Description:
single chain, mainly alpha, 0% strand
Amino acid sequence: MIKKIAWEAFKNTGDINTYLELKQIENIEDKIEKNDFNMDNNQVEGKEEL
């Protein structure tokens, strides 16, 4: 969804910085989701990370 918003913002404004900033947010969200997934898997397997 953010990718679509970023693309629309770029098309409407022509400002590449807006697009790049929104893409960075998308990348951060992906990393957070992967981290949450990894933490869930560790809990299921009985592992704990400090």
